[in-house]
Structures are given as structure tokens and as C-alpha cells.
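C-alpha cells in:
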């Protein structure tokens, strides 16, 4: 199995950061404006990506611990993504802000798609940082 692991420090508190990854306005602020986002365990994040695919990519929320952790399982989307797990772990940094540890695990192989996804997530996290620090939406994908 192949796993993506990223970490970024943002100048925003864990609750603000959590809202950015777990609410409709938050996800639209940095990820995609094509977001139907349910909140809490069992909810779906149904995301669309213009120019990428006509189908939605659906992430089922497994764990929702406000200000601390959000875990999701991919239940619809590209075949290579189905069954992979996405984890956002948030921790207050002693000097202020939040450390965001991100894991996207369970890919079958390190192939071209995996490498593109790794770069994609890295680019999206620069948007997450900008969004939570400024409050100004900067979505990676706009519908």
C-alpha cells in the first residue's frame, strides 16, 4: 500500500481550522466550490471538480471530533481512490496556530496517479493555510 503524509502549520486556532475542513463554507473556501458537505460522523462530503470528471467524489465521514480530528473514507470517485482513508489531525502549536497532519492512506501503488494526487494535496494545503489565516476564500477548484 502507498500512503500520502503531509504536515503544515497554520496561523489559525484548531476550531477555525476544523470548520474549514468540515463545513460547507469551509470546504468551499479552500478545496472546491462544488461541495455538498454534511457534518458529523456518517455524513457525506460530495465534491465535484470541474474539468476533472463529471462524477462526484464522495467521502464518508467516519470520525468528527471538532477541533481535533476528521477521518473520511472515499466511497465514490476514481477506482484508485475507493476505500482509501483521509485523516486530518489537528493540534494546537505551543507558539500559536495549529499543526495540521494529513494522511491519505490505502493507495494500491506508487504510480503516476498517486504522484499527481500527492502534488494536488500539497497545492490544496497552501490554499487551506491562506484561507484559514485570512478568511478570504481561495478555492483550488471553482465550479
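Residues out:
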Amino acid at each position: 500500500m502507498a500512503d500520502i503524509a503531509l504536515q503544515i502549520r497554520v496561523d489559525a486556532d484548531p476550531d477555525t481550522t476544523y470548520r474549514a475542513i468540515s463545513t460547507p463554507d469551509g470546504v468551499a473556501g479552500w478545496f472546491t466550490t462544488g461541495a455538498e458537505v454534511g457534518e458529523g460522523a456518517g455524513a457525506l462530503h460530495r465534491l465535484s471538480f470541474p474539468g476533472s470528471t463529471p462524477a462526484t467524489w464522495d467521502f464518508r465521514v467516519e470520525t468528527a471530533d471538532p477541533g481535533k480530528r476528521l477521518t473520511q473514507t472515499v466511497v465514490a470517485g476514481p477506482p484508485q481512490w475507493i476505500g482509501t482513508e483521509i485523516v486530518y489531525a489537528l493540534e494546537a502549536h505551543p507558539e500559536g496556530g495549529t499543526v495540521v497532519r494529513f494522511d491519505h492512506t490505502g493507495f494500491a501503488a506508487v504510480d503516476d496517479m498517486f504522484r499527481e494526487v500527492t502534488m494536488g494535496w500539497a497545492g490544496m494545503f497552501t490554499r487551506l493555510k491562506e484561507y484559514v489565516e485570512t478568511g478570504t476564500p481561495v478555492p483550488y477548484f471553482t465550479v
